[in-house]
């Protein structure tokens, strides 16, 4: 009998057909929460899950006695109870690498847009306010030749740094990461303590995963360390930055601007002032959102799930220990 999987992410017809050849596939279009009663009921029979953007709480695993693997269509796995999954030997797979360059492009778009005030000044033209040559009140600041500080220096952090160092002649500093001698040699990057990096950088780009260790890593204290002319870019996860503290810093002019792809609450609450602030560029979590990359992520997740449910090691696995237990079983 075929194993049963629940699919709640966007998959192409070809990918769905690939899954259907191997498994009984039950689809949940537009699933907003794992609390959905139909989804919860279906979990009882499920061997695998494939999707993204839906938090799976540890308690829910009690309702999924047959679950063997989850294939998340994302590199970040803050939506999953990793320890509880590992304890039950349930494999958690993600999609690193295939989204690195696209997410770094988003980061650099935010660096450029905030420094050169692209969105604010495009709105100025759209409103018909461009009546004479612009003056210093509308000038931005240079990106080339400045100092770029990466908070987290993994795949995406390094890809942002490459753009900065090789494309824009930027000095690269990094913090919140183990030493990276190869990247130091390639990009002239230098490792700093977080406080030092914040004080030194013209652009601070956040690329650490969200976990209890990084929640509100950038708060009032850290923002106060930044130069008043500096710009914060967050392409990681919203809760890594204390949003209330960020709003206050921006309002008080303690930092120049922020480019944000991610927020503490998503979609952004209508109450949030951030989209209306002239010195903020707010995007709807588009880090990896290109046709090519979303397709590659979905394909990686499909491949991961097929491998995992046929007893083979998935291409990208978060909880190695669960694999070791399964292999030994
Ligand atoms: P990665 O290669 O694992 O890099 C993570 C970096 O953060 C590493 O340098 C790591 O240090 C560092 N780090 C610092 N504290 C950490 C902690 N407590 N736990 C784990 N790592 C810690 O990940 P990536 O592929 O660059 O992705 C980074 C994050 O970007 C993802 O987790 C995801 O949340 C986010 N993301 C967002 C979007 C978007 O749409 N905006 C798209 C893709 C990814 P070491 O170097 O010492 O390991």
Main β-sheet, spatial strand arrangement: 8-7-6-9-10-11-12
Count the strands? Answer: 12
In the CATH hierarchy, the third-tier topology of the largest domain is known as Rossmann fold
Identify the overall geometry. globular
Oligomeric state of the chains?
Answer: single chain
* Number of domain modules: 2
Q: What is the level-2 CATH architecture name of the largest domain?
A: 3-Layer(aba) Sandwich
Characterization of the model:
With 329 residues, the protein is of the alpha/beta class. The chain folds into two domains: 4-96 and 291-328, NAD(P)-binding Rossmann-like Domain (Rossmann fold); 100-282, Rossmann fold, CATH 3.40.50. Helix content is 36%, strand content 15%. It is built from twelve helices and twelve strands. The chain has helices at 13-22, 37-43, 82-87, 100-115, 118-126, 155-168, 181-187, 194-200, 220-225, 243-251, 291-309, 320-328; strands at 3-7, 23-27, 48-51, 69-72, 91-93, 147-151, 171-175, 190-191, 203-206, 231-234, 257-260, 280-282. The strands form two sheets. Strands 8-7-6-9-10-11-12 form a seven-stranded parallel beta sheet, with helices on both faces. Helix 1 (13-22) links the parallel strand 1 and strand 2 (23-27). The relative contact order is 0.14. The model has no long low-confidence stretch (mean pLDDT 97). The structure holds NADP nicotinamide-adenine-dinucleotide phosphate (NAP). Residues 75-76, 96, 99-100, 103, 152-157, 176-178, 207-211, 213-214, 235-237, 261-262, 285, 287-288 line the site of NADP nicotinamide-adenine-dinucleotide phosphate.
């Amino acid at each position: 009998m075929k194993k049963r999987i629940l699919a709640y992410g966007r998959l192409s017809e070809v990918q769905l057909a690939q899954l259907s050849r191997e498994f009984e596939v039950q689809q949940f279009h537009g699933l907003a929460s794992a609390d959905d009663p139909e989804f919860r009921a279906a979990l009882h029979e499920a061997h695998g899950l494939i999707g993204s953007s839906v938090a799976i709480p540890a308690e829910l695993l009690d309702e999924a006695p047959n679950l063997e693997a989850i294939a998340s269509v994302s590199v970040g796995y803050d939506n999953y109870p990793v320890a509880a999954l590992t304890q039950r030997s349930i494999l958690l797979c993600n999609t690193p690498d295939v989204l690195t360059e696209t997410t770094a492009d988003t980061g650099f778009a935010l660096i450029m847009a905030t420094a050169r005030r692209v969105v604010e000044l495009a709105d100025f033209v759209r409103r018909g306010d461009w009546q004479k040559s612009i003056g210093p009140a509308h000038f931005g600041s240079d990106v080339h030749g400045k100092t770029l500080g990466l908070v987290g220096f993994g795949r995406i952090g390094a890809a942002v740094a490459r753009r900065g160092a090789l494309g824009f002649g930027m000095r690269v500093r990094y913090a919140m990461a183990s030493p990276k001698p190869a990247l130091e040699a390639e990009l002239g990057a230098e490792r700093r303590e977080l406080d030092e990096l914040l004080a030194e950088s013209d652009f601070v780009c956040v690329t650490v995963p969200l976990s209890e260790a990084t929640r509100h890593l950038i708060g009032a204290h850290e923002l106060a360390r930044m130069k008043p002319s500096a710009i914060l870019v967050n392409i990681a996860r919203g809760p890594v930055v204390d949003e209330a503290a960020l709003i206050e810093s921006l309002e008080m002019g303690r930092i120049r601007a922020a480019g944000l792809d991610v927020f503490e609450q998503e979609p952004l609450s209508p109450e949030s002032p951030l989209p209306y602030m002239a010195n903020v560029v707010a995007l709807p979590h588009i880090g990896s959102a290109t046709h090519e990359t979303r397709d590659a992520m979905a394909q990686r997740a499909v491949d991961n799930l097929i491998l995992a449910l046929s007893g083979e090691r998935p291409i990208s696995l978060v909880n190695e220990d669960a694999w070791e237990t399964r292999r030994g079983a």
